[in-house]
Write a structure and sequence with these properties.
By secondary structure, the chain is of the alpha/beta class. It has 14 helices and twelve strands. Bound molecules: 1,3-dihydroxyacetonephosphate (13P) and iron/sulfur cluster (SF4). Iron/sulfur cluster binds next to loops.
Length: 301
């Protein structure tokens, strides 16, 4: 075992810390984490942690969600500048403006939003539960933000609701094209094509399944297929291969990388555990209002 891995394991015990990591983290981080998951699984896990420290290997909105749900823990974000460009596409003032324009609408925010935006949201959702949340909101009109492709997916699944879509997108998922998909079908006719709902509509419409990252893991375990084409950030492929050694996984077209997810390194994780630095702090009032929208999501599903 590498010295740095040993050091992190010792620090974890000494500091009473738990390491949570998203499915897109580099393999070394996924392998050392206590729990690896998608946004919903990580939020639920963070809520029940009773260790003193949560080291969150992911991007800022995920660490903020952990803090919102479990405010008595010290939540550390090893790569302190790891943001999510999609989350940055919704600013609180613009959301308030939109609310004024549609006073009867419910605001449903993807969990990929800042704590501030969550504080003016009625209910949050993740890629794995967006359609269920929308079905259950007690309003016909919904302001859905910030990802328009996830919005497309939900609108298709729930045509009875009127969704007002935000003009946001994930630059990583937007890179997968219909051309990539056609080529993959030709090359691997027996493969299942699994894509994330942040992909463009034409990619979603021509895939076999549109799933969250953990939804893809579940499908890969359950399916009879031996080959899978994966339309999401390349980090997930490490976990898919590790958990399904008898199956093959290929990226849809070229591997696509979320640079912010890749900022977390073993060195940064070690340093932030050692010095208890990079702590997530949020204003009390924002945290309380944001908690209502995240807890509402957990009640709705
Ligand atoms: P998941 O919740 O499906 O893991 O997605 C998170 C994300 O950031 C996708 O880009
Ligand atoms: Fe944000 Fe896209 Fe990276 Fe997910 S993959 S964290 S949505 S930029």
């Amino acid at each position: 075992m590498d010295d740095i891995v040993k050091e992190i394991i010792m620090l974890k015990q000494e500091k009473d810390a738990v390491i949570l990591a998203h499915n897109y983290q580099i393999p070394a981080i996924q392998d050392i984490a206590d729990f690896v998951g998608d946004s919903l699984e990580l939020a639920k896990k963070a809520r029940e942690v009773d260790s003193s420290i949560v080291a969150f290997c992911g991007v800022r909105f995920m660490a903020e969600t952990a803090k919102i749900l479990n405010p008595d823990r010290k939540v550390l974000l090893p790569a302190f500048n790891a943001g999510c460009p999609l989350a940055d596409m919704a600013k609180i003032d613009d959301v308030l403006e939109m609310k004024k324009r549609y006073p009867d609408a419910y605001v449903v925010s993807y969990i990929n939003t800042s704590a501030e935006v969550k504080s003016v949201t009625d209910v949050c959702c993740t890629s794995s539960n967006a359609a269920t949340v929308i079905r259950n909101v007690p309003a016909e009109t919904v302001i859905f933000l910030p990802d328009k492709n996830l919005g497309y997916f939900v609108q298709k699944a729930k045509p009875e609701k009127k969704l007002i879509l935000w003009d946001g997108y994930c630059y990583v998922h937007r890179m997968f094209t219909l051309e990539d998909l056609k080529k993959a079908r030709e090359k691997y006719p027996a493969a299942e094509i699994l894509v994330h709902p942040e992909c463009n509509p034409e990619v979603q419409d021509n895939a076999d399944f549109v799933l969250s990252t953990s939804g893809m893991l579940k499908r890969a375990h359950a399916s009879e297929a031996k080959t899978f084409i994966i339309g999401t950030e390349e980090g997930l492929i490490h976990r898919l291969k590790k958990e399904n050694p008898d199956k093959e996984f290929f990226s849809l077209g070229a591997s696509r990388v979320c640079f912010n997810m890749k900022k977390t390194t073993l060195e940064l994780l070690r340093d932030c555990l050692k010095n208890e630095t990079n702590e997530i702090t949020l204003p009390q009032d924002i945290m309380e209002k944001a908690r209502n929208s995240v807890e509402a999501m957990i009640r709705y599903i």
